[in-house]
Hints:
The protein is α+β, with helices and mostly antiparallel strands. It folds into 2 domains: 2-171, Ribosomal Protein S5, domain 2, CATH 3.30.230; 176-315, Alpha-Beta Plaits (2-Layer Sandwich). The chain has helices at 65-82, 105-119, 126-134, 191-201, 205-224, 228-247, 258-272, 296-304, and strands at 2-14, 19-21, 26-27, 31-48, 55-58, 61-62, 87-95, 148-152, 163-166, 176-182, 277-280, 287-291, 309-315, 322-323. Strands 1, 4, 5, 6, 7, 8, 9 and 14 form an 8-stranded mixed β-sheet that branches. Strands 11-12-10-13 form a 4-stranded antiparallel β-sheet. Helix 1 runs parallel beside helix 2 and helix 5 packs antiparallel against helix 6 (228-247). It is globular. The structure holds ligand 2P0. The site of ligand 2P0 has 15 residues, from helix 4.
Amino acid sequence: MKATAKAHTNIALIKYWGKRDESLILPMNNSLSLTLDAFYTETTVTFNRELEEDKFYLDNEIILGDQYTKVSKFLDLIRNYADSPLFAEVHSTNAVPTAAGFASSASGFAALAAAATRALDLNLDNQTLSRLTRQGSGSACRSIYGGFVEWEKGVEDDGSDSYAVPITPQDHWDVRVAAVVLSSDMKKVSSRVGMKRTVETSPFYSGWVDSIPSDLMQIKTAIQNRDFEKMGKIAEANCQKMHATTLGANPPFTYWHDTTLTVMQTVQALREKGILAYFTIDAGPNVKVLYQPENEEIVHQTLRKIPGVSNVILSRSGQGVTYQ
Ligand code: 2P0
């Protein structure tokens, strides 16, 4: 009735952007990510006959409101799957360095799904676990696995073929990621709201979807061949395409801050000096920079010095879900 699991967050190189089914969380396009070892969530779930409702604690504080409702609704799915009436107490800790600006929903829902299903003795295989995790938060289904991971969108209406698959062994390639944290935040359009508005109103959205198969095919070849330049170019362009769709939405919006652009230009300037580094950006102003181990020092020092950058956190590739 009790289990503990740990899951790492992931950074998408080919972005998940847009749903075809909002309640089952089915995406419009396949996406591809790298799991990161520096950012993770550890969660203990205890099912208990004496509880009259679920309880959720994050970093030792009780959580109420929308965040609680999302967790409790996800536990409903698991209860339904296990045919169990029991409520649970959930204790999560986020090992995400302060204000890293990483969405913790990927590692959060992956750890929650793993711990809750283990606590109910479901012993799911990873494919089933990934499919279930997807219904908590889309990007979380990729965090079941380590290394490079693809989320296959599937074609079925019931979501039965929409789950993540690892595309390389976890130790395939030592690619590093610097998370560049900006000191000022912007009013945020959540990714859930942002992608919905984009799908519904942006004339650029169909171009985004049409371009994905080619990006995916090329980046998978680059990853197999450990071709850093090719992988980086595709990831950087895919990120800019995703963000371009938001400018065509009605009302238009962008996640970029002025310092976001400065970081992007600094990364491009590094390349002009012969240092291969590439950026990618999620639904927020912070930037993640892909680099090779031999360039760690120069990339770190360069990013840290940019005015408006408050922190730079370095990460390697991380592993999939583990249990204590
Ligand atoms: C990604 N993002 O592929 C993309 C790129 C943000 C930009 O997945 O609604 O928090 O819970 O399925 O997974 C963020 O979306 O959204 C995201 P839901 P999620 O990483």
